[in-house]
Amino acid sequence: MDQTPFAADPGPAPAALTPMMAQFFEIKAVNPGYLLFYRMGDFYELFFEDAEIASAALGIVLTKRGKHLGEDISMCGVPIHAANDYLNKLIKLGHRVAICEQMEDPAEAKKRGSKSVVRRDVVRLVTPGTLTEDDHLDARSSNYLAALAMVRHGETDFALAWADISTGESFVADLSAEQLADEMARIAPAELILADATRAVLAERHLFAPAWAAIAASIPPQSADSEAVLPLLRAAFPAERFDPTALSRAGRAALGALVGYVGESQKGRQAALRPPVLDAAAQAMTIDAATRSSLEILLTQRGQAKGSLRAAIDMSVTAPGARLLAARLAAPLRQSRPINERLDAVGRLVDDGLLRARLRQDLKAAPDLARALSRLSLERGGPRDLAAIGKAIKAALALSRHLASQPEPGLVLEGLTARLGAAPQALASELGLALDEELPLLSRDGGFVRPGYDGTLDEERALGRETRAVVAALQARLMDETDVRSLKIKHNGVLGFFVEVPAAHGQKLLEEPHRQSFIHRQTLANAMRFTTTELAELEGRIAKAQGAALEIELAIFARLRAAALAETQALQGLADALAELDVTAALAEVSALRGYCRPRVDDSLAFAILGGRHPVVELMVKAEGQSFVANDADLSGNEESGGGALWLVTGPNMGGKSTFLRQNALIAILAQMGCYVPADSAHIGVVDRLFSRVGASDDIAHGRSTFMVEMVETAAILNRATRRSLVVLDEIGRGTATFDGLSIAWASVEALHETTGCRALFATHFHELTSLAKTLARVSNVTMKVREWEGEVVFLHEVGPGAADRSYGIQVARLAGLPDPVIARARQVLDVLEQRSAGTASSRQKASVLDDLPLFAHQSPPAPKGKDPVYEALDTLRPDEMTPRQAIETLYQLKKIRDDARRS
Ligand SMILES: Nc1ncnc2c1ncn2[C@@H]1O[C@H](COP(=O)(O)OP(=O)(O)OP(=O)(O)O)[C@@H](O)[C@H]1O
């Protein structure tokens, strides 16, 4: 191992660079923006600013080594065996790392001269979007790299290409400026690459979302040139399966940039990317970023999985199933036919619990085929990945056989049966024969080929075993010859095989006649060690046998790997089929367990839900031992009447308005992704775009006030919603002065009703809005019912016709623990305000109550009126003098005094 790339004092001029330092700078210069993991023996070392960044991020010691231009050089290092963990941490923090390895043995370098440097090169760029190892990835989530390109004069403005190189899936879509934000929200890539010029145009047009800055990486403009990338695309995908010229120029540029970046990051290793799926966005319900966040589809608004819709319904049993389920949830369909086909398949498994249980059981045996295949194609896979492929094929064939014996499978299940049945059985058989039960992670560790699979390998292994017997025989012979009974033949890493005798017998072997054959190697405190020529020969034989065995195993591995990769296309198809079956069975499971119903999905403008429930809140309410109150919603309309209905939902705070609004949006998502829905019945005409807004949430970090955010979002809805859309607006207009807010809410309802004609739910505390039901034909008022009981408000969480006349805000504030004096004062103010709006308060009354605001003056809690008999009785008690019996009697008396006082 060479020591340091830097001389202790390199002197003032760059001419004083040591050869190694020159090498370091050279490599660093061609990998700008990456932390350079520079391999030195058993460590990756980082220097200069890289060292400072990494030591702070990883919490490891920053040291100094040598000087450069008179300054100390900062340095830190991570040991090779722990490098993966450190790498993982850096990537999670958004850093990008270039792995620079020693490309030759230091001894080789020495042969070129004592001053020559070990050749080094970057073998891999590790970035958040190009991960493939299991310990860097979340098994149940996709990890996308996205490339965004723009062609100013082309058919379209922008295109996005994205791929998960851990599975090989890839996609391209031409997008309008507004679709761009929606798609980015849906895909949620780990990394976004784009040229600086594209980024500048996006920023200028306010299209570069602030959240993208954290994941963006810049690429040179020629990497996203629609002409220059063509050869790259032709090389990446087989011509018979994909023609890159069929893409738009922007699409080509984006996909080319993506393929180029993946190639560069893997340094020539070929990622098994599948031909891209085109324009997935066109098939899916449009759900923008704000709606995704407000409905907490994959993550809650705090960014957690727990509490999201996904967490509530994901019952998949395999990781690929979980990834597909998330993808489907993020992109519900918008064509009734495929939706119904999916629902048929789910329904078949809802109805047949036995079949469902059996399939789910068999699916558990299917490993993550796509990720194993991807690792193998990137030369990062090991024997376990090969075994995973074999197991997945076997599981697929078993599933197919089982499904084939079922009557009336329906279109989707029938298709799956055929696809699973087409699994390459011969490959599985070969893998089964070749691979042993217990497998090492890496092929270079050897020992993974099953005995009996390869005759020559077995022979070499036998030779290895045989030599062990030879060692034992030799030991016995030497014991006899020397007459040292305690003589032993041992082995260690430094000496190899050696003879060890206790110190007391050592001298004997140093003398004639033994000194002829025993060569002294080491003297320890109580033992002496020797070698013999015979032992050295034996050593050579064993090493050769082991080396030969490993070589054979590696050749077998290479052959099996090639055989698996030759089936790439079939295996990728199989991985899809397994994931689809898992999702279908998982959705059936959740539907059956939770009493969901099959929705009727067609092309009408219906939206009629009977007994609807919120899939997530229902679980939480039940976990607390309470029952969830189901509610109906009917927003159905038709073209003749001008579109769908709009329900104005009023009711107290905490009454369940938001829950009701969101449950209907979530029911639409579940239905259109092909799942049963939490309701007694549901009839839904496909929704093309779904909008959900919850009023007032600050976006201070991005310089937009509460009200501004709300208005930008409302504008997006009014501009983008169509007659087919479903709009859910929760308290729009509350972030400004009452009258401004009311006027905006009013005008928005009118616009949704008159111009858009979409199906909509609009929750509001502006009770004035409810009068719109008189003038707008398709607007109805509903309210969350409450009951008042002994001055307290009880929420029934029940939706009924009519409008609320009050919000019970003060009662809710009391429940929340606002101090009593504040509550009392609020009641006073409310009374006057209500009388004023009803025109019944005199101006003197207003002045006396409102102008004399004692709210912030110090108020002590009201003293109890009169004397309290309980306190008086307590004053007379002497607990020290009481027996336990007297104490309990006194307690009863106290309680009686209090009850009497209440009654009087
Ligand atoms: N249908 C229901 N059945 C049972 N509990 C419910 C139901 N709907 C809501 N809840 C409970 O009431 C709580 C408050 O509901 P929600 O947030 O929907 O009220 P809200 O009317 O929107 O309140 P605010 O106006 O203050 O935003 C929920 O967290 C849930 O625990």
From TrEMBL:
GO terms for molecular function: ATP binding; ATP-dependent DNA damage sensor activity; damaged DNA binding; mismatched DNA binding. Pfam families: MutS_I, MutS_II, MutS_III, MutS_IV, MutS_V. ATP binds at G651, P652, N653, M654, G655, G656, K657, S658. It comes from Devosia chinhatensis. PROSITE patterns: DNA_MISMATCH_REPAIR_2 (PS00486). This is DNA mismatch repair protein MutS. Residues 528-555 form a coiled coil. One of its GO terms (biological process) is mismatch repair. InterPro entries: DNA_mismatch_repair_MutS (IPR005748), DNA_mismatch_repair_MutS-lik_N (IPR007695), DNA_mismatch_repair_MutS/MSH (IPR017261), DNA_mismatch_repair_MutS_C (IPR000432), DNA_mismatch_repair_MutS_clamp (IPR007861), DNA_mismatch_repair_MutS_core (IPR007696), DNA_mismatch_repair_MutS_N (IPR016151), DNA_mismatch_repair_MutS_sf (IPR036187).
